C-alpha cells in the first residue's frame, strides 16, 4: 500500500495483511497498518469502514428446528413422488416409449464406451500448476482437498484420481473411503506417501521430500522397499540422492504447513532457510552481501500472499535491507550500507 | 495467534464445503434423491429465514419455499451451468417469493413494489452478543440497523447472516459488485457515526 494515495475499498478487503490488522491476528501486520494510519490520517474513514466490513456483524443464526426441516422435506418428496406416478398413466404408447428408452440407453452406452476407449489414450492426465506465489485450492474427483503452494504441480490420471504425482509443495486433506477402504498415494521424486484418510503436508523441493502429518496415519514407501509408518506430529524428510531419512517430532505444525493459511510462521529459523523457502514459492534466487547475514534468526508470522509485504516484514524484524531486482534478492546489511 | 488460526481454518472449511456442494449438485441434476435431500437440508433453513425477512409471513414463505424446491426438482435438467449454488438458490427463491407476494397483495391492496421489502427488519435477539457488546449496545445496534435503507439492510443481511460473497450478493440483488460494496460501506459508516453519537450522549447523560 503506497503512502498518500487513498486506498480503494476493494483492495483493502482483499489484502490479507489488512485483514490480519483488522482482526489483530498478526503482529507484523498490526504494526504495519498502525504506522500506515499514523502517516495517512486523511484516509482514516475508509480504513475504519473497511475494518468494520471485515469484522462484520455477528448474527445469532436462529436455525430452524431440525424436525421442521425434516417435515418440509418429507412433504416436498411426497409431492415429487406423486407427480411422477400421476404422469405415468397418461402415456399412450407405453411399450413403444420404454423400448425407445432402452434403445436410447443402449446407444448412449455404446457411444460412451467408444468415447472412453478413445479418450483413454489421450487427455486422461489432469495437471494443475501454480505460478510463483500463487496458492490454489483444489478438490479431486474423489473429494480429496488439495491446497497447492506456489511454483508447484500436481497430476493424476482421470481414471485414478487417488494416485497423484507432486512436484513442489501441497497440503492434502484426503477423504476417507469407508466403503472400500481405498488408499490414496502421493508420488514424489523421492518417495510415495500411502494413506487412507488424513491431513498432511508434502514438500518435494530442494532434492528431498518433507512430509508432515497433521491427522490420521500415513505410510511412506521408499525406493529400497523400506516402509515407514508415521503418526500425527511426525515430520519426516527423505532424499533419494543420499538416501538419508531424518525424523523429528513437531510440537506445532505451524512452521511447516502454515503457508496454506496465508502466513508463513517461522520459529527460530535462520534467514537463509526462510529466504530459500520464499525463493522457492516465488521463483527467486538469493544472494548475500556477507555470509554472516545468513545466520540471522527469524521468529514470527510473515504474510505470504504479497511478496512486497512479505519482504517488508522480514526487513523490519531483522534490520537488514532486501533489494529485489528481477529474479534476485540481494541481502544487504543495513548499518553498513548507511555509512 | 490462536484467534487468527481459528478464523482461517473456519474460512478454509467453508471453501471446501462449497466445492463439495458442487459434486452433490451434479448428482442431484442426475436425479439422485439423496443428493437432493442433502441440498434441501443444507439450504432450507437459510432460505426460510431469508424469505421470512422479505415477506414477514411464515405460511406464505413456507408454501412458496416448498413449491420452489419441487420446481427445482422437476426442472433440474434445464437449470444449465450454475456458478454458485448458493446465490442461484437465493436469487431464484427471492424471485419466486416476490412473485407470490405480488399476487397475494394484489387481492388485498395496492402496494408499490418497493414496499415489498418493508419487513426486512432485525431484532435484538438476532445479534450475537460478543463480550464487548452489552445488551444495551445490541438494542442500539438493532435500532440503527433498522434505520438503514432496505438495500443496505438486505446487503448486510446477505453478507453477514447468510454468509454470501459480495459477488453472490450482486447476483441475488441484481445490482453491481460495486453497489453491494457501497451499500455495506455506507451502512457501516452510518452505524459507526450513530454509535459514536450514542456514546457521546451516554457520557453526558451519566454525568
UniProtKB/TrEMBL annotation, chain A:
One GO MF annotation is:
sigma factor antagonist activity
Pfam families according to UniProt: FecR, FecR_C
What is the top-level taxon of the source organism? Bacteria
The Protein FecR C-terminal domain extends over: 264-331
Q: In the UniProt record, does the keyword Nucleus occur?
A: no
Looking up InterPro entries in the UniProt record yields: FecR, FecR_C, Ferrdict_sens_TM
* TM regions (residue ranges): 99-119
Q: Which keywords belong to this entry?
A: Membrane, Transmembrane, Transmembrane helix
Residue intervals of the FecR protein domain? 128-219
Instruction: Tell me the PANTHER family matching this sequence.
Output: PERIPLASMIC SIGNAL SENSOR AND SIGMA FACTOR ACTIVATOR FECR-RELATED (PTHR30273), PROTEIN FECR (PTHR30273:SF2)
Q: What is this protein called?
A: DUF4974 domain-containing protein
Taxonomy of the source species = Bacteria, Pseudomonadati, Bacteroidota, Flavobacteriia, Flavobacteriales
TrEMBL record, chain B:
**All copies of domain RNA polymerase sigma factor 70 region 4 type, residue ranges:** 141-190
Q: Which InterPro entries match?
A: RNA_pol_sigma-70-like, RNA_pol_sigma-70_dom, RNA_pol_sigma70_r2, RNA_pol_sigma70_r4_t2, RNA_pol_sigma_r2, RNA_pol_sigma_r3/r4-like, WH-like_DNA-bd_sf
- Key word Cell membrane present: no
* Ranges where the RNA polymerase sigma-70 region domain occurs: 40-105
Q: Which GO terms describe its biological process?
A: DNA-templated transcription initiation
Q: Keywords assigned by UniProt?
A: Sigma factor, Transcription, Transcription regulation
Spans traversing the lipid bilayer = none
Gene Ontology MF term list: DNA binding; sigma factor activity
The text of the family note is:
Belongs to the sigma-70 factor family. ECF subfamily.
What NCBIfam families does this protein's entry cite? sigma70-ECF
Annotated protein name in UniProt: Sigma-70 family RNA polymerase sigma factor
Organism this protein belongs to: Spongiivirga citrea
Q: What's the source species' lineage?
A: Bacteria, Pseudomonadati, Bacteroidota, Flavobacteriia, Flavobacteriales
Amino acid at each position: 500500500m503506497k503512502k498518500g494515495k487513498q486506498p480503494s475499498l476493494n483492495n483493502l478487503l482483499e489484502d490479507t495483511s489488512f485483514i490480519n490488522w483488522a482482526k489483530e491476528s498478526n503482529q507484523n501486520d498490526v504494526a504495519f497498518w498502525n504506522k500506515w494510519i499514523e502517516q495517512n490520517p486523511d484516509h482514516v474513514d475508509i480504513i475504519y469502514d473497511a475494518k468494520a466490513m471485515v469484522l462484520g456483524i455477528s448474527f445469532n443464526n436462529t436455525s430452524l428446528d431440525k424436525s421442521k426441516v425434516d417435515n418440509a422435506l418429507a412433504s416436498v418428496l411426497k409431492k415429487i413422488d406423486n407427480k411422477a406416478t400421476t404422469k405415468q398413466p397418461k402415456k399412450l404408447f407405453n411399450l413403444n416409449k420404454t423400448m425407445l428408452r432402452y434403445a436410447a440407453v443402449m446407444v448412449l452406452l455404446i457411444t460412451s464406451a467408444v468415447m472412453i476407449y478413445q479418450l483413454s489414450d489421450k487427455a486422461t492426465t489432469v495437471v494443475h500448476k501454480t505460478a510463483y506465489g500463487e496458492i490454489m485450492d483444489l478438490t479431486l474427483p474423489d473429494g480429496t482437498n488439495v491446497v497447492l503452494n506456489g511454483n508447484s504441480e500436481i497430476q493424476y490420471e482421470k481414471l485414478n484420481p487417488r494416485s497423484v504425482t507432486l512436484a513442489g509443495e501441497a497440503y492434502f486433506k484426503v477423504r476417507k473411503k469407508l466403503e472400500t477402504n481405498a488408499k490414496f498415494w502421493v508420488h514424489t521424486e523421492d518417495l510415495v506417501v500411502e494413506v487412507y484418510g488424513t491431513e498432511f503436508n508434502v514438500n518435494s523441493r530442494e532434492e528431498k521430500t518433507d512430509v508432515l502429518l497433521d491427522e490420521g496415519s500415513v505410510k511412506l514407501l521408499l525406493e529400497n522397499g523400506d516402509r515407514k509408518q508415521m503418526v500425527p506430529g511426525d515430520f519426516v524428510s527423505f532424499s533419494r540422492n543420499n538416501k538419508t531419512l531424518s525424523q523429528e517430532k513437531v510440537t506445532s505444525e505451524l512452521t511447516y504447513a502454515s503457508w496454506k493459511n496465508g502466513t508463513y510462521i517461522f520459529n527460530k529459523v535462520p534467514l537463509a532457510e526462510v529466504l530459500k523457502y520464499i525463493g522457492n514459492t516465488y521463483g527467486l534466487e538469493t544472494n548475500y552481501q556477507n555470509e554472516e547475514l545468513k545466520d540471522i534468526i527469524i521468529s514470527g508470522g510473515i504474510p505470504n500472499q504479497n511478496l512486497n509485504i512479505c519482504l517488508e516484514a522480514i526487513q523490519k524484524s531483522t534490520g537488514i535491507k532486501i533489494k529485489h531486482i528481477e529474479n534476485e534478492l540481494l541481502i544487504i546489511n543495513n548499518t553498513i550500507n548507511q555509512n | 495467534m490462536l484467534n487468527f488460526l481459528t478464523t482461517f481454518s473456519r474460512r478454509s472449511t467453508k471453501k471446501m464445503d462449497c466445492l463439495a456442494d458442487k459434486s452433490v449438485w451434479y448428482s442431484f441434476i442426475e436425479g439422485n434423491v439423496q443428493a437432493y435431500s442433502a441440498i434441501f437440508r443444507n439450504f432450507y433453513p437459510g432460505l426460510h429465514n431469508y424469505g421470512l425477512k422479505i415477506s414477514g409471513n411464515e405460511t406464505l414463505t413456507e408454501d412458496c419455499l416448498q413449491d420452489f424446491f419441487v420446481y427445482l426438482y422437476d426442472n433440474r435438467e434445464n437449470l444449465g451451468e450454475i456458478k454458485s449454488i448458493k446465490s442461484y438458490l437465493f436469487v431464484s427463491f427471492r424471485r419466486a417469493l416476490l412473485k407470490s407476494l405480488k399476487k397475494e397483495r394484489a387481492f388485498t391492496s395496492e402496494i408499490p413494489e418497493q414496499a415489498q421489502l418493508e419487513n426486512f427488519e432485525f431484532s435484538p435477539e438476532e445479534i450475537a452478543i460478543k463480550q464487548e457488546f452489552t445488551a444495551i449496545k445490541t438494542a442500539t445496534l438493532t435500532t440503527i440497523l433498522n434505520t438503514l435503507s432496505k438495500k443496505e439492510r438486505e446487503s448486510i443481511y446477505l453478507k453477514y447472516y447468510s454468509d454470501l460473497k459480495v459477488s453472490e450478493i450482486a447476483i441475488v440483488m441484481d445490482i453491481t459488485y460495486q453497489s453491494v460494496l457501497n451499500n455495506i460501506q455506507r451502512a457501516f459508516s452510518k452505524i459507526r457515526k450513530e454509535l459514536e453519537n450514542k456514546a457521546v450522549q451516554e457520557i453526558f447523560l451519566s454525568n
